[in-house]
């Protein structure tokens, strides 16, 4: 066989002729900052170094009073002060909340690894178009939060639900006033840092337009607070995993309705429908809504002075601590998997505010395990 025909070699040759790269050279390699500075060839690499400040010009790196979250500088030593020994890293929108220095000044001096393209930034050796940040106490991949879910490994059904409850109950609780400021970060418009995105309508609205008047945005409880009568006291009433910005009029139209398909169009909420006993948001966020509801049903089990929130397969639940319609919410979650906005929101809540996660964003497959 070896003298007459080698199938693997033939396949490799054919793929190479067709322009398919299959060699290990296409994979990112981990290198030092010094190597990255000397390798500005538009290749992809993972660079490990210490955060030493924020570049603001070709030869200027500031170490305090950071102007924004757009960039950071890496060096092979945490005490490096020479910009010629620094790599300037552009921080894409998705990672600014976790790795921008204005939001995370404590990253200064921490060691991190960044994967991206080795190319000039600020007319200086740099790394742009980053696809991953790790280390420094943060994680750029909301679907792989280290050992956060170690206690849930191997479990299914009721045992999985109990394990997740124990994990996500370890959280920092906010006051209802603090929710205003938190939502301005968690739901910031990726294309306009002055705005937030309303969850049901999808409208981008100035952060400053918070309030109770028509066309303002306010704090929508996706798990209606009357379903369990928990109000706005610290706990489920202030848990930002289910609190979202929404237009005052649309918030009122949703009221405390359960979730289901059907109904007629809702004013100022394209794609939303409602009838006398149910509400459906626009299709692009139906999965988001479902995963928020699943989170609440696992997080609040009646063991911390709050109601035991549960799902059922009906509407018209009124003030009972139930939310429906389970079969519809499961279908919504399957049809609308987590997107970049939802994953980033989960990460920001975890890293900056409550320090707990929505497990059904990280592991959508756990929905059918707990609610078969």
TrEMBL record:
Transmembrane segments: none annotated. The keyword ATP-binding does not apply. It comes from the Bacteria. Residues 31-133 form the Endonuclease YhcR N-terminal domain. Keywords: Hydrolase, Nuclease, Signal. Residues 1-27 form the signal peptide. InterPro entries: Endonuclease-I, His-Me_finger_sf, YhcR_N. The keyword Hydrolase applies. Pfam families: DUF6359, Endonuclease_1. This is Endonuclease YhcR N-terminal domain-containing protein. The lineage of its organism: Bacteria, Bacillati, Actinomycetota, Actinomycetes, Propionibacteriales.
């Amino acid at each position: 066989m070896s003298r007459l025909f080698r199938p693997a070699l033939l396949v490799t040759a054919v793929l190479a002729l067709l322009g398919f790269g299959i060699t290990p050279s296409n994979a990112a390699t981990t290198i030092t900052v010094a190597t990255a500075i000397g390798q500005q060839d538009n290749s992809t690499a993972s660079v490990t170094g210490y955060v030493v400040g924020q570049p603001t010009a070709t030869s200027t790196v500031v170490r305090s009073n950071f102007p924004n979250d757009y960039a950071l500088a890496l060096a092979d030593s945490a005490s490096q002060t020479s910009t010629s020994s620094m790599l300037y890293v552009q921080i894409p929108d998705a990672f600014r909340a976790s790795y921008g220095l204005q939001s995370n000044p404590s990253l200064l001096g921490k060691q991190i690894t960044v994967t991206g393209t080795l190319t000039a930034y600020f007319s200086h050796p740099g790394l742009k178009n980053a696809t991953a940040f790790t280390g420094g106490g943060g994680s750029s991949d909301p679907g792989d939060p280290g050992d956060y879910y170690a206690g849930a490994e191997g479990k299914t059904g009721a045992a999985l639900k109990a394990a997740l409850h124990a994990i996500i109950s370890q959280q920092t609780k906010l006051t209802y006033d603090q929710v205003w400021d938190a939502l301005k970060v968690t739901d910031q418009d990726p294309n306009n840092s002055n705005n937030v995105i309303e969850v049901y309508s999808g409208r981008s609205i100035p952060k400053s337009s918070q309030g109770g008047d028509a066309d303002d945005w306010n704090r929508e409880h996706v798990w209606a607070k009357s379903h369990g009568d928990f109000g706005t006291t610290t706990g489920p009433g202030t848990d930002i995993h289910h609190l979202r910005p929404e237009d005052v009029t649309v918030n009122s139209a949703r009221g405390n309705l359960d979730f289901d398909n059907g109904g007629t169009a809702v004013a100022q909420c394209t794609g939303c429908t409602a009838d006398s006993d149910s509400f459906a948001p626009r299709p692009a966020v139906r999965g988001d809504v479902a995963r928020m509801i699943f989170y609440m049903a696992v997080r609040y089990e009646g063991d911390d002075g709050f109601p035991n929130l549960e799902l059922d397969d009906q509407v018209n639940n009124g003030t009972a601590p139930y939310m429906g319609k389970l079969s519809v919410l499961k279908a919504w979650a399957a049809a609308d998997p987590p997107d970049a906005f939802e994953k980033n929101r989960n990460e920001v809540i975890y890293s900056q505010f409550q320090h707990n996660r929505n497990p059904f964003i990280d592991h959508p497959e756990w929905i059918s395990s707990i609610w078969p």
